[in-house]
């Protein structure tokens, strides 16, 4: 019997040879082998969603892949970090019972006519999508749905703030599905286009055609469904479209800036249907992800940009990737106009005039973290980390306190920027520093100095 390391290496190599890089990265690279005993392999995966996908799809493929070389069938038990090692916990793992979501394994659709015009943007693929903490689950769910449409999460519902990649992921699902099944019929629309198509069909007496068009797809992607609010007739029609596709086990993917039950004037029966599948949120990217997105974009545009300039731009825009990309393009335009290289001071100059605002004066959490770390002689990594020695806890709490005072970021958002901490930790830090300030003159001096430096 091979040891754990050899077995895992073998699995990685085999999987890498047989599947696309994105599949490999999403399901294998995020997994960690834990134990191999009694022909049973325990693998730790990041979330329940990953575990479900492993159970349903990855595990059978690996078992089959290994059967010939090993000469026997191994058992694979995926678990999340919170779950005990099933081999140690003794309890036989519930392999399928833990599925939280409705699934249906009877998907296999008939051949469809080839549809060229599915309104997909070529740039929005899984390959160009940078995965980070805020979007890891959404990305994994998107890939699961693209690879096995109608099986896992139907509907798949993305929600989250503006410019965070919901549309990008929806298009990526469409591309991936067409790559796997070139004859599939994929349709991407915004909720407004759906409403317009519907109204036009009434005006031109082509309702039957409209229904035929929307109800014959294999994958329907409807973006920004918050704009269904107030459109009673459109909601009614969409309800029937949804039912027809769902009953036919066709995949539906929806997006909105908020959860279904928070969309005003959305019919209750639609809200409840939208909850049948999986709702997954996308939160703003952390600093490292923002840098990775900028790097990718710069590489695609063949731009040469120093590391510190990436950090500078990523420090300025922390809650909307569209703005982040826009900033990079602006810097590029500035450099092209002046025939000069891209440097941090050029970037500062370019972004300063953005909307006529002094944009480089905008306070962001990474700027606060850097300033506080320097002031207390610790590193930003330590500030974001979990070490509980006083020399680090105080700077960490001060940085959280200042982030709350000097930026508009919410408590969860601040927690996320501090290495993914809970919002209650941020609140605790804020309250602790506020209390200490009542009778700690030294701390008061530190904070006043930092504030003065930060607000220059
Ligand atoms: N993780 C990511 N990796 C690379 N690019 C991204 C990522 N997330 C978003 N983007 C890019 O940011 C821009 C905005 O993304 P997108 O349009 O998908 O946002 P959205 O959440 O649909 O916004 P809206 O709520 O305005 O519809 C796009 O150009 C997209 O390619």
UniProtKB/TrEMBL annotation:
Q: Which InterPro entries does the entry link to?
A: AAA+_ATPase, Chromosome_initiator_DnaA, Chromosome_initiator_DnaA-like, Chromosome_initiator_DnaA_CS, DnaA_C, DnaA_dom, DnaA_N_dom, DnaA_N_sf
Q: Which family does it belong to?
A: Belongs to the DnaA family.
What is the purpose of this protein?
A: Plays an essential role in the initiation and regulation of chromosomal replication. ATP-DnaA binds to the origin of replication (oriC) to initiate formation of the DNA replication initiation complex once per cell cycle. Binds the DnaA box (a 9 base pair repeat at the origin) and separates the double-stranded (ds)DNA. Forms a right-handed helical filament on oriC DNA; dsDNA binds to the exterior of the filament while single-stranded (ss)DNA is stabiized in the filament's interior.
Q: Does the keyword Heme apply?
A: no
Matches recorded under Pfam families: Bac_DnaA, Bac_DnaA_C, DnaA_N
The segment annotated Domain III, AAA+ region runs over 119-335
Under CDD domains, the record lists: AAA, Bac_DnaA_C
Asked whether the UniProt record includes Transmembrane among its keywords, one would answer no
Name of the protein: Chromosomal replication initiator protein DnaA
Specify where it is mainly localized: cytoplasm
Q: Cite the residue spans of the region called Domain I, interacts with DnaA modulators.
A: 1-96
Q: What is the protein's quaternary organization?
A: Oligomerizes as a right-handed, spiral filament on DNA at oriC.
- Species of origin: Ligilactobacillus pabuli
**Which ranges carry the Chromosomal replication initiator DnaA C-terminal domain?**
364-433
Subcellular localization(s) per the UniProt record? Cytoplasm
**Keywords of the record:** ATP-binding, Cytoplasm, DNA replication, DNA-binding, Lipid-binding, Nucleotide-binding
Binding-site positions, ATP: 163, 165-167
The segments labelled Domain IV, binds dsDNA in the record are 336-456
Q: Boundaries of each AAA+ ATPase domain copy?
A: 152-283
Per the record, the domain comment is:
Domain I is involved in oligomerization and binding regulators, domain II is flexibile and of varying length in different bacteria, domain III forms the AAA+ region, while domain IV binds dsDNA.
